[in-house]
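User: Predict the structure for this protein chain, please.
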Amino acid sequence: MKKIYLSVLGFSLLCRLNGYAQTKQDSVAHKSAYTINNTPKQDSTHYNPRKFHLDEIDFVSSYYSQTGNHSAVTGGIGTEKVTDLANGLTLNFVKTDRNQNKNTLTVGLGFDYHTAASQAYVSKTGASSPTGARLYPSIDYTIESAKSGNTFGFGAYYSNEYNYKSLGGDVHFSVKTADKNGEFSAKLQGYFDNVTLIYPSESPLATAVVTNYGGDHGDGGHRDNYGTSPRKTYSASFSYSQIINSRLQIAFLADVVGQNGFLSLPFHRVYFSNGKDTIERLPSSRFKLPIGFRANYFLGDNIILRSYYRYYADSWGVRSSTANLEVAYKVSPFFSISPFYRYYTQTAARYFAPYEEASPTQQYFTSNYEYAKFHSQFFGVGFRIAPPNGVFGWQGLHEMEIRYGHYSQNTDLVSNVVSVNLGFK
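Assistant: Here is the predicted structure, written as structure tokens:
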């Protein structure tokens, strides 16, 4: 299910970021006083410090549906039918301190409700519940210097679902160049998860508390008496963005990610070539290195071309490339349409094997098609309105964006997602 959440939430976040970027980037094309972050330079007006006040409310809701026939729960075959309703509310509080620095407190709350047909097959009797929910609050505090435009902040996250709990935190900062046309940003993150050890119903481990497994079972030996196992993820994200001229902006992106702990899911089955079966077993560590490049070009006053490329490699043998292009066309000063297309291709992890093709002599094995060789396409369109008198005449609702996307893999996985973003001032 984590893969599904990333798709839904990533698409929802994309709606918000694209809408925000479009408003600001349009201004950059005509106002040289804007910085790389598309925020106005500080003027010389002096004003008294203010207490925290609610500056903006963002609400995003997405509906996702998926079909396919390669469920990891049943060993690489069987239904992948999933539906997910994701909702997120973000409150942005802003104040200025005695040094005229901008202080932003962001509080978020997300809630997902999903149905997954494959969950019923964790038990071969079909008795398991095919529904679930996830709750994930977050908080972030950022200070922006009035003089330099540099920022420093920190955040915390929590997520709770039926088979895992996660606690995370980050520290982030950005530094602008002297002319304010370039910016370096960095974020250090850590996530500390506990995975519930839910086994297939036919496994002896499903009804027994195991306290000592011995050797490396893909969990680094991390087991306890409470039926959970830890998983830790550390990441460092870096970016450098630069305004080349009034029409072109570019950015270089890189991440370094390390994981250790229980990286398998025990209710994912694997069927060997000899007819026997077991549960998924993966190494207890993983290293990831994605690098990317982004370029936005203003083609006249009404068209923005947004392009993106990312290359990814990890220690499990997966290599992938992502290419994305979005064309934002401003039909009027207050209405725009943004068709987009993304192509993705990846190689298989060295531990992947389809149903009944894994060798029983292998140390690690999985039939999860997330690690298979495949290519995919994702395309759709977004519509954004931001009239000066508010959406539908409601002054407080300053913008609305609706996006639809269709996703397909050559493995026969197909999904659709629609998202609505509302911005309140």
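Helices lie at 2-28.
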